[in-house]
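Q: I'm writing up a methods section and want to include an example of the input and output format. Could you take the sequence below and give the corresponding predicted structure tokens, formatted cleanly so I can copy it straight into the document?
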Amino acid sequence: MHNIQIKHSNVFKKLFDLYTRGYWGFHDRGDGKFEPTIVLGSGLSDLSPGVLTVSNTINPNNVNNNQGSIGMVSSIVNNTYDFGAGLTFIHKNDSAVLRTKGVQEFRSGFGAWYFSASTNTNVNDITISDTGNDTELRLANCAIRNSRITGYTTDLQIMAVTGGYYINVLAKDYKTAPVENISKI
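A: Here is the clean output for your methods example:
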């Protein structure tokens, strides 16, 4: 970017060269509310698909309804950002919502994802794991496993989380298909 200029008023700042590259200011939603907003990739008036925004919806009459969002804008509908992919932090219930219009993909160099309550002291979490040899879904004390090791690739294993032994399966009804029917599937 050459010859960068910064334009500002009492409610916004813009960074641009030939085109607006960034915006920092207040988005007028048209309903009497203003959202503090940061836009990367364009200005507020020329918001286009694929632009990253960070915004905070403030309701001074009910702070429990306050929320902040970061996302890639698909469009603006009724003066509200419609995100193709986004993360919203909600003050009420101290929650967060991750959403996409397409696939959600999670990658980890270690190959494991852990889900647990922050107050959980006995480590009864849910783990999804890919160790390279095995893929597992771990639930408290058992693991549902499928292995890539020869001799185990066609088996579904129900094991102790420690992996040393198989554990019992308790069910009301257990049905199997005759072998001759399985080969036709």
